[in-house]
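Let us begin with a simple case.
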Amino acid sequence: MTNATISTTEETRKKIFRIMSSVNLRWVEREDLLKGLVLSLLTGSDLLAIGRPGCAKSAVIKDFLAHLSMKKFSRQLNQFSTDKDLLGDINPKIFLDTGVRIHASSNTLLDCDVAFIDEVFKGTKGARAAMLEPLADRQFSENGDTEDIPLLSMFSASNELPGDVADAAFYSRLQLRIVVNDIGTSVGIGQALWGVQPARCSDRLTREEVLSAREEIEQVTFPDAVRKKCHAVFEEMQELGIKLDQRKRMKAFGVRCSLAQAEAWLNGRTEVRIEDLRVATMTFWSKPSHEREVRNIIMKTCTPKMSSAADKFNEVHEYYNMKPLGQMDDDQLTKLLVMVKGVRTPNIFRHLTMTQRNLTTEISEKAAAIILQRNKS
């Protein structure tokens, strides 16, 4: 790789971080979804954001799309949506002249760099079946001919998961899966309600920059020790009965392991480290009920310090949720503050997520305020 190419991709990496910072400032506690969108774009793994209505899934995706200088296609599906809404209708002129059924694919899923399909499970089964080949192979076949399509990534969002076995093939193609939860802290809620949302940054990511980044990501090496750790994670999940489809297994544990490579590249490295495997928490589950189990396995195996910090935080959070703070006696409040103090030590606090840090600080301030008020009275 030439110095000019390295310089170009370094600028691309800086641009991505500026875009991530811009979107994060505009949307509270949506770091996981934004990281998933970036990894989807860098690896071509299509993404599903799942969460209840009103948790800003679509808003964050649209905000990220606004930072992409590419050809985009967007649709919100409903119960009447069919394959024509995604792939285009049959070209009437060609059909009348020749009798051949050719899709008029301009401005459709077949003719874009990035697609966003909202309420992806609301459309007909035929609409999702029509996306199987484009998503799996980045190709589309009709009349005996197969052509490549320019699609880099597809983002999708839904309030619900498919309830029909017939959708299993389509669901398996959405390899990056992000559970979008409600805002978890009163600080975050206050920021979302009353904070001034800054303007978007001026950076725009192009198709050419993404393709150059992908070329460099493919060169990131994957040491044997990290591969062995991958297999250890997979075997532990199998023991718990968490099954992975073969396509996901090959993409995650094969030679390329692009998600981990992309994470390493984002951090400016040319070799995957064990901690880069934490991005697997976005892909190694099928049911949301398994998401936490998968996260715990991967964090414990790949990032033990982060796993230990999360365990300490969970102890504080469970004790905090035992009863309202106002109903705790002084001894219980004091115990809670001691637990929080242990979590706020630098060796633990720096391994927490931003949401966990905010909630820890919030618990500490609330408990201390109650004790102070009681002492005054």
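The second case is a distinct protein. As before, the sequence precedes its structure tokens.
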Amino acid sequence: MKKLLTILLVTVMAVMSLPTTSSALVKEFKLGYITNPIGPLHEGALKFGELLKQKTNGQYTVKVFPSGQLGNERELTEAVILGTIDMTLSGPTPVSWYTPEYSMVNCPFIYKDLQHYMRVWDGEVGKFINDKLLEKMGLVVLDNWYRGPRYLTAKKEIKTLDDLKGLKIRVPEAEITLETWKILGTNPTPVAWNELYLALQQGVVEAQENPFEMIQSASLYDVQKYIMNTQHVASHYFLLISDKQLKNLPTDVQKAIKEAAIEAGEYQDKLMLQGETDRLAELKSKGMIFVELDMKPWFDLVLSKIPETFSKKYNMDIYNKVINTK
């Protein structure tokens, strides 16, 4: 018995004396998003995991779950809040879900162009919104990843406001977007992203609006014929993690996550912005027709109706800050 005890002690001491390796895996983060595993967002997500692994000597890694494998956009965001998944890449709709009074930042037609949009979200307004999401929902915006302007697609050509009347258009689950398309005379219907293809195929809706990347990655060219050059709003993705989750990590790991998020975001932004021409060419090669049109009447109508439509419900100070951002 004493001999056995001696052997066990010697073995334990020998194991304890072995050099530890800094590359032993500590945690694999789950990162979920609704887009398919192609295109700049997916490449950016993979780059984020690669950078985090490098910065933590292999101790922390990221496993990506594209194509809505873990849920739709709202389910993914709420799973991050609850802690059942670690991170998500979401469009800006969480602002409308969790801080609805500031929904004007998601209103179509209030941004002059993509550069104006970037200045807003990289500046005072973006910081304010990020702070509100943290304060109200415990969500930390690690970085904003841009995804370019949104375009209207439909089964028929649309060039004028009259062409919009009664159009059954899919919109995200955000009241501000739904109300804006009502102003334009359409019949907007919220449809989850992972249900959109079937909804278009079956005629539940006949139009939708998204950036080129989303149109391409979801093969919407199979169920939509025309792309209208509306560019009615720029858009971005939030890379979200819960504040509780982040604070439970070592300080150096928190720093690595934030750095990796920003560096991966810069990589994704570059891919996104440089690839717009190629994505349009690809969509045309699939049979889609690109339609130029005069957007001034659309913008003028929406901007003229905003005060009476939204001022009683939403914070208009944030709207004025967006409009006046130089």
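The longest helix spans residues 251-274. The longest strand covers residues 139-149.
Keep these points in mind for the review questions at the end of the chapter.
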